[in-house]
Amino acid sequence: MKYVDELRDGATARRLAAAIAAEADPDRGYRFMEFCGGHTHAVFRYGVPDLLPPNVHLIHGPGCPVCVLPVGRVDAAIELARRPEVILCTYGDLLRVPGSRRSSLLRARAEGADVRMVYSPADSLRIAREHPDREVVFFAIGFETTTPPTAVVVRRAEAEGLANFSVVSNHVLTPPAMAHLLDSPELDGPAAPSLDGFIGPSHVSTIIGSAPYEPFAREHGRPVVIAGFEPLDVMQAIRMLIRQVNAGRAEVENEYTRAVTRVGNRKAQELVSAVFAVRESFEWRGMGSVPGSGLEVRPEYAHLDAERRFGVAVGQPRENRACICPSVLRGAARPTECTLFGTTCTPDHPMGSCMVSSEGACAAHYAYGRTRERAEA
Amino acid sequence: MSGKPDLEAGRVELAHGGGGRAMTRLIEELFAAAFDNRWLAAGDDAAAFPAPAGRMVMATDSHVVTPLFFPGGDIGSLAVHGTVNDVAMGGGRPLYLAAGFVLEEGFPLADLRRIVGSMAAASREAEVPVVAGDTKVVERGKADGVYISTTGVGVVPEGVAVGGARARPGDRVLVSGTLGDHGVAILSAREDLGFGTELQSDSAPLHGLVATMLEAAPGVRCLRDPTRGGLAAALHELARHSGVGMRIREADLPVREEVRGACEILGLDPLNVANEGKLVAVCPPDAAPALLAAMGGHPLGRAAAEIGKVTADERGFVEMETAFGGTRLVDWLYGEQLPRIC
């Protein structure tokens, strides 16, 4: 595949690996967090850790929209779906995420709830047009990448005067979450090994640009290198991070210049601002309430906001105590440190959200990495 | 209705499954006419045929596919190929098929005729006649147009011992051709995904290829058609049954450019995508060159490739050396493959 194979070339990878090994200082360790689940997936899928020196560690971050959705919101989705008048539309991965008491949207569907898997928000709009007698709710999740398409359907529903369509916004924002992570005592406390830098999100950055990370890098003294999802992108970003660390710099650099600019996609940003407002705070699974990290539907579109329309209440359910998804999401624990990993909790029967999505750290470890983990153990 | 069914503009009615004249006329005018053989013409409930020498092999498969018609085939031809191939993967020469139809009330008879016609053509091409059948009609809304179950019987020649538990460490793993063609062709035909491709399903009967293979390398240990779940599932099944591991090489996997591209866009892995005209074979290392040559000389094995080997790993791990230079686990598919969110 033109333009893709070049970014997966084994010979180039070996040269890059040699360069990384030469530049990494053997007397210190490097801990870089790949914030995005897409990077976690690529790292495992292509066996990137095999090509890194032993003192360069990749820490998996919380950048998977399915993984960070708190159980209370999964429960709220299930409750909405159980209303007889509602058709609940959402992305496929979310259907399997466990809610309280081992429920899930998939289980609710088997019990009679009308839950539809959609590939894009536009599909849910079509379903609303086809079922004027039902309430069609799009349960929206995702980072900055998936927010513009949700904004588009809100605007279109408004323009068409669709009275039976609404949206639950679970859209979340990357930069506040990155900042919040460094406040975690597990990661940055005196006893914890510090993070040395971030591999910044790729698709997210095509929308917001690289500029929003600049204050973060400055204030927290951590370099950020925005990288594409191809394995050579990830390796090049690691090399760039090592160089910054070695030089004592903490700047935002852009490895993904073929898609990301400093300012991003202004049109998409304007669209999102017109439809969504930043919430005071939003609950993330594993990270608690993160200030300024979520988006809600603006009051002028209140009639299209399912949270207001149906009085959606988000509870604080008790999570499975043995599940360490919260620590995994903060990068404070490895999936294999969880007693449930690979035994009670597998992709077939996920106990925690990180095992559900293919971009979740536990699922990626389970699918691609556990041979190595066990060999090392 | 009790007259001749209108195969141009008519639709399936509950009476077509009611056991009365309407059903009999539909069977005579459509099914018996299309499959056209002496067993069906006899009109008995069961087909009688001589039992050949050797071990009998039997397989059954139910076919539920959306859409019913797709590039390179339809549910009718698929129902023949699927079961013929299951019999062939047991090392058997398929002899006869039986078919059960579940029809949804309101289904256009013209579409049914097209499906049955395609099924009859596939059965003739494979030289495996449909000698017994059954038809049921369910109310509108209780099925998805047409479901077809097929059962096949065949005979395993003397000296052939193929089985999923026979793989041994050191054995070679081969595939008969490009992976994922069927699954991607089906996806491309689904309205809600809407991406165009010239790709055709690889749906095909494999018993001829299997006969050629067994002649060239009688010591073939395992055969498996990587249908649902794709190559990954087939390798896991063999690894599990044999108590071994597998190690394959990504660079040696035959995958069409269109399939790679479609999988890339949808966030799918070609290793998990279904095939309907491909097989996986495991053989002792010294038999691999002859087997590969024999496969390459058959029209359905032109793109055959040796893709890896069997390892001594009682945990049953299937690993892949990536083209990138690393190693990763190839896992089963969980639930259904879902396009990624971002």
Describe this protein's structure:
The complex is a heterodimer of chains A (about 375) and B (about 350). Chain A is of the alpha/beta class and about 375 residues long. Chain A folds into 2 domains: about 1-320, 3-Layer(aba) Sandwich (Rossmann fold), CATH 3.40.50.11740; about 325-375, no CATH class. Chain A contains 15 helices and 13 strands. Chain A has a 5-stranded parallel sheet with strand order 2-1-7-8-9, with helices on both faces. Chain A starts with 9 loop residues before the first helix and ends with a helix. The mean pLDDT of chain A is about 90. The model of chain B has no long low-confidence stretch (mean pLDDT about 90). In chain B, helix 6 (about 205-215) runs antiparallel to helix 9 (about 290-295). Chain B starts with 20 loop residues before the first helix and ends in a 13-residue tail after the last strand. Chain B contains 9 helices and 13 strands. Chain B has a 7-stranded mixed sheet. In chain B, about 30% of the residues lie in helices and about 20% in strands. Chain B folds into 2 domains: about 10-155, PurM-like, N-terminal domain (60s Ribosomal Protein L30, Chain: A), CATH 3.30.1330.10; about 170-330, Alpha-Beta Complex (Phosphoribosyl-aminoimidazole Synthetase, Chain A, domain 2), CATH 3.90.650.10. Chain B has helices at about 20-35, 40, 75-90, 110-125, 180-190, 205-215, 230-240, 255-265, 290-295; strands spanning about 55-65, 70, 75, 95-105, 130-140, 145-155, 170-175, 220-225, 245-250, 280-285, 305-310, 320, 325-330. Chain B has about 350 residues and is an alpha+beta fold. Chain B: InterPro entries: HypE, PurM-like_C_dom, PurM-like_C_sf, PurM-like_N, PurM-like_N_sf. Chain B: Belongs to the HypE family. Chain B: This is Hydrogenase expression/formation protein HypE.
